[in-house]
Design brief:
Order of helices and strands: HEEEEEEEEEHEEEEH
CATH architecture: Sandwich
CATH class: Mainly Beta
Structural class: mainly beta
Number of helices: 3
Bound molecules: calcium ion
Radius of gyration: 16 Å
Number of strands: 13
CATH topology: Immunoglobulin-like
Length: 224
């Protein structure tokens, strides 16, 4: 199943990649040693790329946000996907990683991470890694308890090591999360440009493309 998902993801990638003005944000959030346990309080205050409701092919694949951070040691990237409505049905996700930060996700050094999230009954996740060209690289987790469990599961968290991504701390990358429905693209969160920092306390640099920038502007207006 995951091999097929990888091929579908590669084909879909061509149509997904978005362009837009990049807003660079100095985010004071510090590294977080996220625990992959299907509980999500540890994500509080971490960088987030939001996504609106009602823009997907189905409610169960309608994404609300991608959260992203890294460990204090600067060796592992963590991600968390959230959908607007809970469901017992599976959620198929692909995280595209542009490790060259050149706007292309299809190179041999780029990465695709496929996530199969099965909320019911135990909140399991299976995560696999591919190159940007679709070559299978490795299994990251099989039926791991990384998702919200039950009949209304909305969230799943996972990790990818910097080594598996082929990146060094501070290397600028772009990531984009999409959901699939029936083997086709359903929803996509705005592309994030991100420099995962290391353990020395440097600020995290993150940029969101147009949708994220608009959301931040909206938030700022509400706060002032
Ligand atoms: Ca957690
Ligand atoms: Ca959405």
């Amino acid at each position: 199943m995951s091999q097929r998902l990888g091929r579908a993801a590669r084909l879909i990638a061509v149509g997904v990649i978005l362009a837009g003005a990049v807003l660079v944000v100095v985010n004071p959030a510090q590294a977080a040693d996220i625990v992959l346990d299907g509980a999500f309080a540890d994500w509080l205050g971490q960088p987030v790329a939001p996504d609106p409701a009602g823009d997907a092919a189905s409610t169960r694949t309608d994404l609300q946000a991608l959260y992203f951070t890294h460990d204090a040691g600067g060796s592992t990237a963590y991600f968390m996907a959230e959908r607007w409505q809970g469901s017992p049905l599976p959620l198929l996700l692909v995280l595209y990683v542009d490790t060259g930060n050149d706007g292309s996700y299809a190179g041999p050094n780029d990465r695709l991470v496929t996530v199969i999230y099965l909320p019911f009954p135990r909140g399991r996740a299976t995560v696999d890694l591919y190159s940007g060209e679709g070559a299978y690289l490795k299994n990251i987790a099989t039926s791991a308890a990384w998702g919200e469990a039950g009949s209304d599961g909305r969230r799943v968290e996972w990790e990818v090591s910097f080594a598996d991504l082929g990146i060094a701390p501070f290397q600028a990358i772009r990531v984009q999360l999409v959901s699939l429905h029936g083997g086709a693209l359903s929803d996509s969160v705005a592309e994030v440009q991100w420099s995962p920092a290391n353990a020395l306390g440097y600020p995290l640099l993150a940029g969101l493309t147009a949708a994220g920038a608009a959301w931040l502007a909206y938030r700022r207006r509400r706060l002032t």
